[in-house]
Amino acid sequence: MTRYKSTPLYGGALVADLPDKFADVSKLREVPDNQEVWIDSDGFTSIIFDITERVGPAGSSPEIDGRAMTTHLEELVGEDIDTVKVWNTTETSFSRLRCVKSHTLVPSTLFFDGNTAALARARRQNDSTDVPAYTLIATQTPHAKSGSKSGSSAPDFTAIILTLLRLEKESTDILVTINVPHIKGEYDEADVDLELGKQGKLIGDAVEYAARIWETFKVKDWTLFQEV
């Protein structure tokens, strides 16, 4: 069973649960200021948080957000987009992240009466909606190179679990990318067939990591998006 720990990100401005066996790559090499990169100490899977400028027109709809997801995926893989196959895309809910429609409510800590405070909290909840977010599962299979050796450590394919979180007011898109390289000899090939719905252990674990992030991701300092 995977053990998790609450992990501060971007100096504590964000927080989310990550597997405790994942290491902070910034302690090993330089990482761009807008990224947080974590890697499995016992394997090859990585989790990357990326704060980027929002793409696409104003508003949110499956069409607008779908085009934004495609744009980010193309930027992620670059010229190798023809090696990518998207298997599914679904709407995603971040349990601890809500978008407050009205900012005129008085914080409940300023109320002296307990019932009034409870009412204020209820009004806050009613005046909030889920922040638009989507997740896709894709695979990237590298082109076969002539003369490559069978013992090469290059992956057979890399599974990509990409979550897009859209913060329109902050003009920000947050990407959470879990890359899962499948290297020959490091996984059971018979267990993986996405066309038949067989994810295998590595992808199954990564889906669990993503779900835990959706449940625990929280913004503690919104001024972060003015700085990155």
UniProtKB/TrEMBL annotation:
Gene Ontology MF, one: guanyl-nucleotide exchange factor activity
UniProtKB keywords: Protein transport, Transport
Q: What is this protein called?
A: Ran guanine nucleotide release factor
Q: In the UniProt record, which is one GO cellular component term? A: nucleus
Checking InterPro entries in the record gives:
Mog1, Mog1/PsbP_a/b/a-sand
PANTHER family in the record, alphabetically? Answer: RAN GUANINE NUCLEOTIDE RELEASE FACTOR (PTHR15837)
Q: Which GO terms describe its biological process?
A: protein import into nucleus
A Pfam family it matches: Mog1
Q: Where are the transmembrane segments?
A: none
Q: Which SUPFAM superfamilies match?
A: Mog1p/PsbP-like (SSF55724)
Top-rank taxon of the source lineage equals Eukaryota
Report the sequence similarity comment from the record. Belongs to the MOG1 family.
